[in-house]
Amino acid sequence: MANNIKTAISLQKSLFDQVEVLAHELKISRSRLFVLALEEFVHRHQNQQLLEQINLAYDDLPDPSEQEYLARMRSQHRQIVEDEW
Asked: What is the domain partition of the chain in residue ranges?
């Protein structure tokens, strides 16, 4: 059995009217429409947080000395590979 919790919210009349129309078009209850909307909102928020964490992980760009070292490594690698061909 699901643990459902009832809650009351206050909406502007214009938004409530839009919800009524959409629920009718989708042939679902207002409650179901609110649940779907909240699930979508929470999912997007979680995705945004994940994206921010990923961006932080990749935000650690090499400093100039590391970039110079990587450039020399690429150059040496290119020379080795060209010699093999």
From this structure: 13-84
- Amino acid of residue 7: T
Q: What is the DSSP string of 60-74?
A: -PPPHHHHHHHHHHH
Asked if 14 contacts 8 with a C-beta cutoff of 8 angstroms, the reply is no
List CB contacts of 34: < 8 A, sequence separation 6 or more. Answer: 9, 19
Note every long-range contact of 64-67, with CB atoms under 8 Å and residues 24 or more positions apart, other chains counting. Answer: none
Measured distance CA(37)–CA(30) in Å, rounded = 10
Alpha helices in the chain (DSSP H): 13-26, 30-57, 64-84
Backbone angles phi, psi at 9, to 5 degrees: -130, 155
> pLDDT tens across 34-81, in order?
999 999 999 999 999 999 999 888 887 778 888 889 899 998 888 888
